[in-house]
């Protein structure tokens, strides 16, 4: 378990997990093949992921993404949990938030956005 910020929304974070000491270990039947766990910060993935919950993650080395599943991704200066959907072409994905109830004016507070797969530095399956 690493106590770093993994947002459920688009807040920039700069911590590096490689420089972070683990804060504990988990042992839950059925998730033995997971690599580590990170907490969630933010509300964009509610109700699937709640602010403050911990998520067990498995590193994906080949960047193969199953459309519609929730992933922890690192790209640019961001770390976040998002449901990844197929993009308009095979080089991109749509980062979708499960929280579709919060609005700013008449716009979704956590609107979907496109990410180029090549820009994703790390992909972890939740």
Automatic annotation (TrEMBL):
Residues in Peptidase S24/S26A/S26B/S26C domain copies: 8-100
Q: Which Pfam families match?
A: Peptidase_S24
This one is known as S24 family peptidase
